[in-house]
């Protein structure tokens, strides 16, 4: 079985209403119904993440992927945890892949959300700020929902963050 190692980030900033978190809406191909008509799809909200490059540590990957996919510069606060799962590639060789994604809590430093390179629009439809206390309900994937909850817990127990 092929193994993939990725890094991802939960980027937070303090707003007047409380903590906000950066999230992405990945690009996805429109599906078609059997009649050939395009079907409406629910908006999928996810955390920025990507494969670790050679010579890179997962924390560095998380910071790089956040910049590439959201337009934001951030710095690491703490590791939140790992998500492990198996999936089957839907392209090419259709191999089973064992994937580990290490997620980090990151503090927003600068940049404007959704100001990303045109080449990234192939992967990311848009990037948005969402209230951190709504993230566990809005994120599409259970493991990422858990990472948002861990970020909330960390920020509650570390008010200096």
What does this 3D model show about the protein?
This protein has helices spanning about 60-70, 130-140, 140-155; strands at about 1-15, 20-25, 50, 75-90, 95-110, 125-130. It has about 160 residues and is of the alpha+beta class. The protein has one domain (about 1-25, about 45-155): Nucleoside Triphosphate Pyrophosphohydrolase (Alpha-Beta Complex), CATH 3.90.79. Strands 1, 2, 3, 4, 5 and 6 form a six-stranded mixed beta sheet that branches. The chain starts with a strand and ends with a helix. Mean pLDDT is about 90; it is low at about 30-40.
Short description:
With 161 residues, the chain is α+β, with helices and mostly antiparallel strands. The chain contains three helices and six strands.
Layout: helices, strands, pairs:
Elements: E1 2-15, E2 18-26, E3 49-51, H1 58-70, E4 73-88, E5 96-110, E6 124-131, H2 132-138, H3 142-157
Parallel strand pairs: 1-5
Antiparallel strand pairs: 1-2, 1-3, 2-6, 4-5
